[in-house]
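Consider the tokenized backbone below.
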């Protein structure tokens, strides 16, 4: 009986993920959750809802249905680039993740930078952070390449170095670029330029987070001359080593600044070393003068290097990180994956997801435009990154080698002892 009681305490958070491809599956999912005993016993139901090739209006319609059928649900989400399992940049997809917390709380807020200034957004958000007891982590889903993501992240995380901030920037399928804009959303708001946040809190809520890169810097450091950041991205890199920034790509990678420029250089992110951390940057555009627009700031006087990747080396880093996550014994796992990472890994992209899926069966993942991660004063806005978040309520499983000893049945390999023959018996 003591073991059963221990098991009930340990398994206090429940995570369920669903990929939905038609209306009947959506209805089945909601009906099943409504009748699920875990829903009725949950203190808080946190829903992440990600879409590819659906409009913002579609997202709002489904969110209203979720709130109608599951009144406890606290919903956030964003538009995606696509998914390697269903064909990146090809298929329509709705992905849902439900976290049923037994003891923790989630506070949702949304800010539209078209309606209020960035300074006002920062001030209000910091006030909400200060008013949240036992703040354990913050999910940020940003949208719009005109939103100054780095400035926002730098400002709101100051003084909260012991709280991990993580998330992604909304993306969109390239086939829909002429008809739609990327968006993030909550149960009440659709944001095309701004941020939706979920403040995760609770005295018993624990998070384990990492940001994984895996590319290797190469070549000499090159000094950046920053320009005045315009309406696109966080930064403008005017010159690198004294010449227009695009010329560096021509010199070392033989890539011309044309309409294929971004797709031709994304295999070789430039890397900034800041506070002992590697911040990867891929240009999101360029100007007629040869300057580069980036999501994720690059400061005047900083040095950058090119980097190169090998699939085996990148996946080895992910494998090592997944082992560390398993040692944490999470009850839920969130993954925020750069679309460029999936494009680079090609048919092996699923291996990263599989590694974490083996740690936690309900693992949810999404492919955004950029990744967000700040903890202990390190990190920022990234490209080509995998941001991993493990959550649990309570102290987690205990036992030899961090295994969960739930019912007293051992699955260790049998001991290889030689048989005792009757003739040899004492």
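A designed sequence for it:
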């Amino acid at each position: 009986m003591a073991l059963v009681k221990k098991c009930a305490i340990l398994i206090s958070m429940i995570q369920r993920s669903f990929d939905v491809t038609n209306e009947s599956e959506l209805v089945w999912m909601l009906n099943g959750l409504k009748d699920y005993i875990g829903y009725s016993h949950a203190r808080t139901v946190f829903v992440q809802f990600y879409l590819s090739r659906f409009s913002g209006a579609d997202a709002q319609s489904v969110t209203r249905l979720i709130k109608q059928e599951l009144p406890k649900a606290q919903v956030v989400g964003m538009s995606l680039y696509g998914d390697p399992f269903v064909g990146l940049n090809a298929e329509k997809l709705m992905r849902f993740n439900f976290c049923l917390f037994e003891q923790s709380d989630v506070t949702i807020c949304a800010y539209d930078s078209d309606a209020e200034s960035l300074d006002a957004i920062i001030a209000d958000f910091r006030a909400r952070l200060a008013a949240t007891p036992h703040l354990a982590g913050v999910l940020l889903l940003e949208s719009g390449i005109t939103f100054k993501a780095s400035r926002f992240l730098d400002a709101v995380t100051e003084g909260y170095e012991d709280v991990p901030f993580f998330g992604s920037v909304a993306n969109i399928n390239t086939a829909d670029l002429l008809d739609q804009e990327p968006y993030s959303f909550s149960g009440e708001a659709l944001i095309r330029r701004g941020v939706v946040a979920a403040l995760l809190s609770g005295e018993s809520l624990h998070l384990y987070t990492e940001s994984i890169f895996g590319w290797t810097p190469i070549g000499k450091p090159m000094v950046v001359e920053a320009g005045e950041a315009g309406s696109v991205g966080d930064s403008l890199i005017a010159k690198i080593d004294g010449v227009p920034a695009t010329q560096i790509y021509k010199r070392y990678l033989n890539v011309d600044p044309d309409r294929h420029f971004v797709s031709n250089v994304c295999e070789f992110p430039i890397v900034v070393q800041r506070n002992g951390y590697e911040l990867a940057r891929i240009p999101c555009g360029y100007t007629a003068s040869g300057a580069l627009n980036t999501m994720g700031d690059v400061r005047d006087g900083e040095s950058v290097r090119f980097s190169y990747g090998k699939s085996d080396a990148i996946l080895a880093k992910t494998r090592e990180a997944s082992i560390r996550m398993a040692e944490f014994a999470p009850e839920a796992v969130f993954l925020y994956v750069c679309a460029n990472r999936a494009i680079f890994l090609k048919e092996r992209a699923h291996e990263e997801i599989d590694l974490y899926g083996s740690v936690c069966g309900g693992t949810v993942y999404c492919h955004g435009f950029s990744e967000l991660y700040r903890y202990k004063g390190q990190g920022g806005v990234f490209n080509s990154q995998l941001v991993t978040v493990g959550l649990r309520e309570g102290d987690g499983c205990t036992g030899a080698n961090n295994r969960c000893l739930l019912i007293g049945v051992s699955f260790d390999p049998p001991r290889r002892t030689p048989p005792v023959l009757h003739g040899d018996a004492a």
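The chain has eleven helices and 24 strands.
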